[in-house]
Specification:
Length: 108
C-alpha cells in the first residue's frame, strides 16, 4: 500500500515553533505570501539567479513547514531553470493552502 503524499504545509510544525501564538503564525504566513509574489515573478524568467532563488525558497519553505516545496527547491538548487514550472506549481499549491488556513484561523 502506498502512503498518501505529505501535507503541502505542516501547520502543526509552525504552530509548535511559534509556541501556539496564532498572531505570530499569521504574520509569518503573510510574510511568506508576500515573498511568494516576488518569487512568482522571478520564476517566470529565472536566469542566472536560479540557484539563489531555489535556495531562498528552500529555506523559507522549511521555516513554515512547507516541506514538499522545500524538497523540490532543494532538487532545483542542484538542477537548472527548467524546473521552474514544477516549482511554480508547488508554490501555487502552497500559497493556496496557506490562504485556506489563514481563513480558517481568522488571520487572512
Amino acid at each position: 500500500m502506498t502512503e498518501p503524499p505529505a501535507a503541502i504545509v505542516d501547520f502543526d510544525y509552525l504552530e509548535s515553533f511559534t509556541a501556539g501564538d496564532m498572531q505570530v503564525v499569521s504574520e509569518v504566513l503573510q510574510l511568506f505570501q508576500g515573498q511568494a509574489e516576488i518569487w512568482r515573478g522571478k520564476l517566470a524568467d529565472p536566469g542566472d539567479g536560479w540557484r539563489d532563488l531555489a535556495h531562498t525558497m528552500k529555506g523559507a519553505s522549511r521555516g513554515i513547514g512547507a516541506n514538499r516545496l522545500a524538497d523540490a527547491a532543494d532538487r532545483a538548487e542542484q538542477g537548472d531553470p527548467s524546473m521552474a514550472g514544477e516549482i511554480r506549481a508547488l508554490l501555487d499549491e502552497t500559497v493556496a493552502e496557506i490562504e485556506g488556513y489563514l481563513t480558517r484561523i481568522g488571520g487572512g
